[in-house]
Amino acid sequence: MKTKIQCGFILALLLILTVVQSGITAEHATDASAYHELNEQVVASIDRGLEWLKGQQAEDGLFANHPGITALALTAFLRHPQNKYSEAEHPFIQQGLQRLLAMQQPDGAIYDIEMQPALPNYNTAISVMALSSTGNPEYAPIIERAQGFLKSLQVTDEESVYYGGIGYGSRETVHDLSNLNLAIQALKESGSDDQEVWNKAIKFLERTQNRSESNDQSWAGNDGGFIYSPDGESKAGTDTAGSPRSYGSMTYAGLLSFIYANVDKDDERVQAAVKWIQEHFTTEENYGMGAQGLYYNYHTMAKALRLYGEPVLTDAKGISHDWYRELAEKLIGVQKPDGSWANEESRWMEALPVLATSYAVLSLDTAYPK
Which of 4, 56, 308, 346 has the most CB atoms around its CB within 10 Å? Predict the structure, then answer.
């Protein structure tokens, strides 16, 4: 009897150790068993969002008369966690994709040359992600030309503070983390894993991170978060000392970009970003920006944290956050009765329901544990 009790105790202890070593607490293991119900709610929310979104497509195949928003909406359909939508079975998706293909320029960019601002990088990057989400091999040469365009935008002047960055892609001189992050996502997710491009991009990423150990710019602080541009511009303004403030969406963009650029997850630069995210984690706002860019923040958060791979974050108060559950419940809770989402803050077009709904659905698509 004693031997059986000892064996049972040892087996129980080994089980506990296995759970702990895998990075999942006993509390989270209990939560994980309840994901079945949450996942059903998430899929239902996604389906309602997509059903509403489908009704917003114009006769010409575009959403909101905008190539980038069209590509974002199509990607939301194509990345459904249960693969309910495909180009082959849904003509409206094919129609939208064909409108994007018709916009490809001789240099490989995909955008409407008559639209102002033209935003060639944004539109091309999001279009590449939509096309690559189809899995259609016929798009390979189109994607390859678009990849070449995105790479051609990278700053190669080593004397420039913007070295390694990718900007809007037109005559604007702005080079920022948001533009670079979207280009990195498009290249990585479409199969272009070019280490030379990544090495340059990493220098730009270092110069947008508030980490003086790896950032050679005089403004750099030490909280590990990210700002908008290496010249010290932060959309969140400055702190009481006049230093640019790190904020949520750019810190998620920085973390995502580092990992996609093949920087090890244990690297001190990555860990500094994760520490900032843990200390400031919230689904109530784009931390440092309030409601501005909130749905962009949700989408980038979902991508970065799913890629990083830790299901639980512990904030500065020692409170554990099951980020998938909190994000999913937040988005489900603010979804409108018709299935759409919209941001009350209009900056960056997020008051436009088509855009906010595309971001929200993609956030749930991405966060959903496959």
Answer: 308
